[in-house]
Each structure stands twice: as C-alpha cells, then as structure tokens.
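Issue 218. Parser rejects a valid record. Input:
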Amino acid sequence: MANDLNLCQFIGRLGQDPEIKYLPSGKAVANFSIAVGAKWKDKQTGQPQEHTEWVKCDAFERTAEIIGEYLRKGSRVYVSGSWRTRKWTDQGGTDHYTTSLRINQMQMLDPPQQSQQGQAQAQQQAPAQNQGQANHQQAPQGQQQGGGFDAFDDDIPFDMPYRGLALNAV
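Output the parser choked on:
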C-alpha cells in the first residue's frame, strides 16, 4: 500500500492580526485565520456568486515569530501544511474538536510596505536627528547612500519574478 498524503495549500488574507504565544519551553506559536474566497457565475441565473471559507492556521518556532513580526490583518499569504484535528474538553466535560492547518511552508505575497507617507515622515525626522552632529558625512559622489540595488546588478544573473518571502519549517 502506498503512503498517504496530508497536504493542503491555501492562498488568502488574514482576517485579523496573528496571535503569538510562547510555550513554557520558550517556543513561539502563531494562531490566525485566513479568508479563502471563491467566485463563480450561477448557471441558472447568470448572477455572480461568492463564498469565503475561513481556514484556521497554526505555526511554530521561527515561522511563528516571522508571522508575528510581518503579517497583519489583510496580509495576503500562501500557506501549506498538514490538516490536523485536535480534541479538547471544556470545564463542563464536553468534548470539542478543532481543525486547523499546521503550517510547514509560508510565503508572504504582499509587496514590502513602503508607503509614500511613511517615507516622507522618515525624511522629515532625519534632519532633526542630525542637527546636533558636527561630523555629518556624505557618501562620495558616484555612490548611492545605503548601497542601493544598482551596486548588485552585475551579480544577479536572473530576474526574480516572485519577490515574496518563503519559509520552510522543518
């Protein structure tokens, strides 16, 4: 008999900020839900239809820490992992079951956050911080301050069409 396969993949958006907890061992745990939408046209009426499925997700250790640091409500994310059902008993003795995706791979799909407003605020704050410094140095002419990507153009032999951050958990 062949091995069984428990692999689920979803692309969706977080419904709220992830909840990060730490186990007594110090390992991080992230819990969040993503909305996975489907759209279709009703064959009888021709009207567009929509359905949203909410998928509970759990991540552990470094993946959980990165999720807590970078993902927020509305973040678009790809997750894959195994489908798990856990049983728990409430204080009244009633058994409950919770099904969730245990993440072993995650990729952020949104571009990095670089709003014009945030850049303008940073530029306004920078001169105020430098007012008391007499030894302000400028980058030599011909070089970009901060090292920009132009300095690395010759080292990259290919274009990266997908700029998301991928994580594989072990």
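Fixed in the parser; the record now loads. Residues 26 and 61 are 9 Å apart (CA to CA).
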